[in-house]
Recover the amino acids of this structure.
């Protein structure tokens, strides 16, 4: 009963804190509102320091915001779906005409959906590459209640390749951003059909990024408890959601791209992955680029296109 009352109070205060924070950002509150915000924030800290952080933290880890699909591709496409146990993954396949050079799978970031891959399709379909973009589990129109940061998602990727009939020895390039980059790296370590990886703004391991992004009033013990609870509820092993660990098993060329101004996932994450790779590798830190908009940055695409010419086009043309 105490936990129920506390949870209700927490939800109410979180809602109020959000409202007042937005109002402050718009400059529409005065001193009284600022004082009230401080009181609400203080009460939140008291609650977070008691019995609730593990439950709240586990929910935050497992249940990212689900962004609905709001538009269709502006290129010809096919709806596609595939199943991993009880989870149905939904996406779009955009096919290239002749000459056909291979397949690109785009993997989106946290709280995003397949729509963010449409720019990839517009760039590469005219070059002769099929492009598959799908909603990760617990995202977009795919089912699944839990995001596991690569632990189950790497198997989802393998089933996507099964669905398309991809064979070992063909050109299969994974391009991922943020969470999608982390999934791409973990999948490349165990999926022999992957021929190349472009990982943009990846985290190095789940534990590090959760601690990096935890609110200032959450303790290290709170994070540990939240991760343990998320592990039980999500049926996964957080320590194995680690691109840095997977990097030691990757044998294909990898391009790591990271924004110099990324404050959400700092470039040190990509540097740690780079140090663990033994396959052909390259790390590009893009000046002026942040986390969310790096794939709109000319510097990122200059690096990607040059790497593509050296590692994807030339070996294929020999």
């Amino acid at each position: 009963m105490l936990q129920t009352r506390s949870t209700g109070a927490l939800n109410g205060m979180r809602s109020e804190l959000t409202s007042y924070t937005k109002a402050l950002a718009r400059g529409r509150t005065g001193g009284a509102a600022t004082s009230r915000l401080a009181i609400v924030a203080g009460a939140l800290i008291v609650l977070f320091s008691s019995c609730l952080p593990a439950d709240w933290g586990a929910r935050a880890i497992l249940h990212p915001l689900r962004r609905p699909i709001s538009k269709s591709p502006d290129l010809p496409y096919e709806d596609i779906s595939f199943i991993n146990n009880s989870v149905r993954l939904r996406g779009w396949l955009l096919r290239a005409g002749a000459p056909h050079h291979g397949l690109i799978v785009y993997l989106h970031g946290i709280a995003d959906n397949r729509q963010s891959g449409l720019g990839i399709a517009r760039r590469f379909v005219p070059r002769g590459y099929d492009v598959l973009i799908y909603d990760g589990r617990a995202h977009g129109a795919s089912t699944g209640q839990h995001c596991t940061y690569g632990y189950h998602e790497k198997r989802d990727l393998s089933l996507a390749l099964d669905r398309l009939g991809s064979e070992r020895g063909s050109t299969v390039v994974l391009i991922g951003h943020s969470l999608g980059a982390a999934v791409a790296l973990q999948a490349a370590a165990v999926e022999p059909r992957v021929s190349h990886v472009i990982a943009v703004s990846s985290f190095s391991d789940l534990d590090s990024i959760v601690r990096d992004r935890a609110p200032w009033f959450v303790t290290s013990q709170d994070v540990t408890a939240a991760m343990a609870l998320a592990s039980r509820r999500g049926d996964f092993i957080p320590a194995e959601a680690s691109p840095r660990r997977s990097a030691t098993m990757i044998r294909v060329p990898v391009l790591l791209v990271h924004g110099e101004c990324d404050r959400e996932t700092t470039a040190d994450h990509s540097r740690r992955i780079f140090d663990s790779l033994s396959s052909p590798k390259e790390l590009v830190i893009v000046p002026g680029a942040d986390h969310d908009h790096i794939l709109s940055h000319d510097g990122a695409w200059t690096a990607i296109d040059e790497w593509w010419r050296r590692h994807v086009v030339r070996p294929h043309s020999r």
